[in-house]
Design brief:
The chain is α/β, with parallel strands linked by helices. It has a single domain, classed as Nuclear Transport Factor 2, Chain: A, CATH 3.10.450.50. Helices cover 25% and strands 39% of the residues. It has four helices and seven strands; from the N terminus they run E-H-H-E-E-H-E-E-E-E-H. The model has no long low-confidence stretch (mean pLDDT 95).
């Protein structure tokens, strides 16, 4: 399901709807497939990346619905040249899956940055993502920024 060169999965991988959605999300992001990524979300879904106020979401309310989530892709996700996900642990229960991961990014111009995070995916009964909540600290991520 995912490009093995862009996603390293060292976590439990028992089948679960939210885990499937998480893996599909990572596959779409690493391949730069905006439309495929947006199609994973329920119409009223919310993306909080990171959770709370941040430079990516000053009000900390999240990005709600396909239009706002699409703008979030355009402004942030789609501006990264390359993603590499390393999932070290995964906990799936109820409608949720929480993944402990590091995301290495190569930015335009060649700078790199790593985000250590816990990403919680919640899905509805059809398997559509209703909530993506990424817990990470912008200051810690910025401290990993390296020039090309």
């Amino acid at each position: 399901m995912t490009d093995s060169s862009a996603v390293t999965w060292e976590a439990p991988d028992a089948d679960h709807p939210a885990r499937r959605a998480a893996r599909a999300s990572m596959a779409a992001v690493t391949a730069g497939r905006r439309a495929d990524w947006l199609a994973l979300f329920a119409p009223d879904a919310v993306v909080e990346d990171p959770v709370g106020p941040s430079p990516l979401d000053p009000e900390g309310r999240g990005h709600r619905g396909h239009d706002e989530i699409g703008r979030f892709w355009d402004s942030h996700i789609g501006t990264v040249r390359e993603y590499r996900f390393h999932v070290r642990d995964s906990f799936a229960n109820g409608p949720c899956c929480a993944n402990v991961a590091s995301i290495a990014m190569t930015l335009d111009g060649g700078a790199t940055m790593t985000v250590d995070c816990v990403i919680v995916y919640t899905v509805d009964t059809a398997g559509a993502i209703t909530s993506l909540r990424a817990h990470w600290e912008p200051d810690r991520a910025m401290a990993t920024l390296t020039a090309p």
